[in-house]
Specification:
Length: 375
């Protein structure tokens, strides 16, 4: 007969001895207390509360105990784990508070420090003005055409019916890059274009009629920079060549333009003038968009914009001279055309009460910024 089984004492299970549980608990508490930052605490947490931590393993042993021993062992391990979790949560809160306090100091922004003011720029009002005018014509089906600013004298003058002795060719008006007496021996020099009209000739040579083009661009004349002149300025040119175009089409187009830009009740008037490349030619005025002509003869209501004249001079226009059509290979018996051109700086001056042209060329953002991103 075999000897009776030795009675089973749960306390004898190594992992569940109270001293052992207490030791595991104290070890965990010590590890948490020693963790100096949240990363270290995370490591200690895995080691002391994770699925393979000694206390978790001890907990698993309880299941193997006889029923009468389970309650006591469960209480022992449960209390130890409770204490460990509480200590963990406490230390976690402490370390998070420390981190938050540190971050607040380290990442603090001193909003009272002076800063470098880099003001945002804006597109130049000359650019937006040119685009605004060009858009009126693009919406009517016109095409934008461009030409070079350094231009053959032939395009700038000869093709446009300027005679060789025309005063505009003289040195005091035109910047010559290479004089007509230059090394090439032929009679055409190279100039900085004095107007956008040479693009008319280029557009006609490039295309078969009908031609409808609008040409915005920079032009040059030998003027001193002062309040009302600048040697570099901008023009916008319009050219239409088709069968049966008349002065009435020109007038209607001008009226449409000023209505689009200045309001539905605007109109234009034409005064006879002379340009070599148009015949007949006219100076075009638009009704003053501020006083609508009411300041004329009315000293009680003076108008600064038109100097109480009722009209504002805009630019030149006319029917394309048949000589220009011929020079550009277009049959004047079949086609006719109209053209006009005007300065953007002048339009910007009266439209926005800019009193000094130098403001437009000096590049000071305090001038451009108020125009913002107006398109
Ligand atoms: N090119 C002319 C100027 O600069 C303006 C103009 C353009 C006149 C087209 C008639 C036709 O003054």
């Amino acid at each position: 007969m075999s000897a009776p089984n030795k009675s089973y004492d749960p306390v004898e299970v190594e992992a569940l001895k109270p001293e052992e549980i207490e030791r595991l608990r104290d070890e965990a508490l010590a590890a948490f207390a020693a963790a100096g930052d949240l990363d270290a605490l995370q490591e200690a947490k895995v080691a002391h509360t994770g699925g393979t931590s000694p206390l978790a393993l001890a907990n698993r042993e309880i299941g193997a105990l006889p029923p009468h021993a389970k309650a006591a062992a469960g209480k022992l391990v449960g209390q130890a784990r409770g204490a460990v979790n509480k200590a963990l949560a406490g230390r976690q809160a402490e370390l998070e508070a420390e981190r938050d306090a540190r971050v607040l100091v380290e990442e603090a922004v001193d909003v009272t420090l002076p800063y470098d003011l880099v003001p945002p720029g804006a597109r130049h009002p000359l650019t937006t003005m040119m685009e605004r005018v060009a858009d009126v014509f693009v919406s009517m089906g016109y095409e934008i055409a461009e030409g070079p600013e350094v231009e053959a004298e032939w395009f700038n003058f000869d093709a446009l019916n300027f005679t060789p002795d025309h005063p505009a060719r003289q040195m005091q008006d035109t910047f010559f890059v290479q004089g007509p007496e230059g090394t090439t021996g032929d009679e055409s020099g190279v100039v900085l274009r004095t107007h956008t009209s040479p693009v008319q000739a280029r557009a006609l040579l490039d295309r078969e009629p009908p031609v409808y083009v609008v040409c915005p661009g920079r032009v040059y004349r030998t003027d001193e920079l002062d309040a009302t002149h600048t040697p570099v300025f901008h023009q916008i040119e319009l050219l239409a060549v088709d069968e049966g175009l008349t002065m009435a089409d020109l007038k209607g187009t001008l009226d449409h333009m000023v209505r689009s830009l200045f309001g539905a009740d605007m109109k234009t008037r034409l005064r006879p003038n002379y340009f070599p490349f148009t015949e007949p030619s006219a100076e075009m005025d638009m009704l003053c968009y501020v006083c609508k002509g009411e300041s004329v003869g009315n000293p009680d209501r003076p108008c600064r914009t038109c100097s109480s004249e009722g009209w504002i001079e805009l630019g030149g226009c006319g029917m394309v001279n048949p000589r220009v059509l011929t020079a550009c290979g277009v049959d004047p018996e079949k086609y006719s055309g109209f053209a006009f051109g005007f300065g953007i700086e002048r339009m910007l001056m009266f439209r926005h009460n800019v009193e000094d042209m130098r403001d437009m060329v000096e590049g000071d953002v305090r001038f451009t910024r108020p125009f913002g991103m107006e398109i």
